[in-house]
Design goal:
Blueprint: H1 6-21, H2 29-36, H3 40-52, E1 56-59, E2 65-68, H4 77-85, H5 109-125, H6 128-131, H7 138-141, H8 150-153
Helix pairs in contact: 1-3, 1-4, 2-3
């Protein structure tokens, strides 16, 4: 089953929260943890990772906290998920070795490759800015190669 980790969920939630505040306003880890009932130690590690990978800026001081380092319309869900979880792998066919004991006679490798690529394209087409708008009808987000939009996949 293809499933994002809690850390990836927390990263996306945090980036959306900060996008809704605007790029110049900060939010503390504590504020976000309390707002979304996320364990503060886990959220702090996710936020630190997002700072290291250039998605966030950490500001010290009384009005300190985290803020987006880039426009939310330029941050894709795919790059955030990859930064936190690593590569998205549907099956072992799509790892660096790409081989298994069934590779020579496998009849689903190519169809699964298309599904895998469709998922990656979909995630790459949805930005934090997109997530920051109110729920859009699925036809506005669009399906790619028959794959449902992200908010349908996340249900």
């Amino acid at each position: 089953m293809l499933k994002l980790t809690k850390k990836a969920d927390y990263g996306l939630i945090s980036l959306k929260h900060l996008a809704l505040r605007g790029r110049e306003r900060t939010a503390s880890a504590k504020e976000m943890a309390e707002t979304y009932r996320i364990p503060l130690p886990v959220l702090s590690k996710v936020l630190q990772k997002l700072v290291r990978d250039g998605f966030l800026v950490s500001e010290q001081g009384t009005n300190g906290g985290y803020r987006l380092s880039r426009d939310p319309s330029t941050i894709t869900t795919l790059e955030v998920i990859r930064a936190i979880d690593g590569p998205i792998i549907l099956t072992t066919c799509f790892t660096t070795s790409g081989e298994c004991e069934l590779s020579n006679q496998c009849t689903v490798r190519e169809p699964l490759r298309k599904v895998h690529e469709g998922i990656l394209r979909l995630l790459d087409s949805i930005t934090i800015g997109d997530l920051s708008f109110d729920e859009k009808p699925s036809h506005e987000l669009g399906a790619i190669d028959g794959i449902a939009p992200l908010h349908v996949l996340a249900s």
